[in-house]
Amino acid sequence: MTEDKNYPNPGDLIEVRRPGYQHWALYLGKGFVIHVTDVGSTSVSSSSSGSVFTRMAKVKKELLKEVTKNHSWAVNNQYDHYRTPFPMEEIIRRAEPCIDKELPYRLFFKNCEHFVTMLRYGEGVSWQV
């Protein structure tokens, strides 16, 4: 791990800037994140926002560097100004049972940002939609 203040801490929200949209993940620690991808996707470069019409998403635990690839990313806990996050241990406890599960996906109501904010705050929110 690094002493860089911009390096994520477990429970942090990670915003990945991709062409035309942002993909969101939650940092678990030791280089891993949890995020949602298209069902049937075998590539970490595929994201939950890859298709507006996707009906299901799969929750994956993957390395941050594999999810971000060559895209820029940043810790973005912007909702902390409006909501109180769960303690870090609770966020991770809530996230781990979701790994490898399939979840309903709707671009405007249940997207990747909704998923990670639900884990962190107990309420799914997304300003990008």
Automatic annotation (TrEMBL):
One of its GO terms (molecular function) is N-acyltransferase activity. It comes from the Eukaryota. Residues 13-128 form the LRAT domain. GO terms for biological process: N-acylphosphatidylethanolamine metabolic process. InterPro entries: H-rev107_PLA/AT, LRAT_dom. Keywords: Hydrolase, Lipid metabolism, Transferase. GO terms for cellular component: cytoplasm. Belongs to the H-rev107 family. This is HRSL1 enzyme. It comes from Prunella fulvescens (Brown accentor).
